[in-house]
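**Sequence, structure tokens**
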Amino acid sequence: MFTGIISSIGLISAIEHKGGDCRLTINTGKLSLSGTQLGDSIAVNGVCLTAIELGKQHFCADVSNETLSRSTLKSAVVGTPVNLELALTPTTRMGGHIVSGHVDGIGILTEQKPDARSVRLTFQVPDELAKYIAEKGSICIDGISLTVNTVNGALFSVNIVPHTLKETTLAEIKVGNPVNLEVDLLARYLERLLLGDKAAKPQPEITEELLRNSGFLDKGIH
């Protein structure tokens, strides 16, 4: 588990493609790995990865096909900057919110404008994630814990203060850039709880045929 408070900006220094997935080597910048052990979790742009090799200023981690398919790591190249955070410990200050490091999907920056000394960023999210995002709720963007300012359909905005701009990769983001999104964990569990006993049964895929058989479409229309 993580808090979404970034410790350092790292750099992808090597990418090794292995059997359909890949292994990343990441330079950790100012982040100290002195207390880190093999097998520990490290969040890389909000993606929880397991350290399989440790150096003084770098670590290596394998990235599965599942992770590549759901995150921006699939398009990472050598030299890509990444936000880093070590896993939560019992003594860690909870400055952000509970973050699992399991990316739900990819958002796109649609607008970027100054707001006093801060910057207001607006993102578009996949339609299936929009229901989990609420005004004044929490959202994790590239591993950064942020508060949602406004919501309008599949669009939401966040305010980035100067310190966050300085300490994260958001200082370099441009309109059209993709970001990793993790919605509030509580929203995910709440949705599952609301299913009640139905949660134990497979949920049918919503298709035109299902809608027609359920009476939502005219069976005579093709």
Remarks:
- The two ends are 49 Å apart (CA to CA).
- The domain at 105-196 is CATH 2.40.30.20 (Elongation Factor Tu (Ef-tu); domain 3).
- The chain has a mean pLDDT of 91.
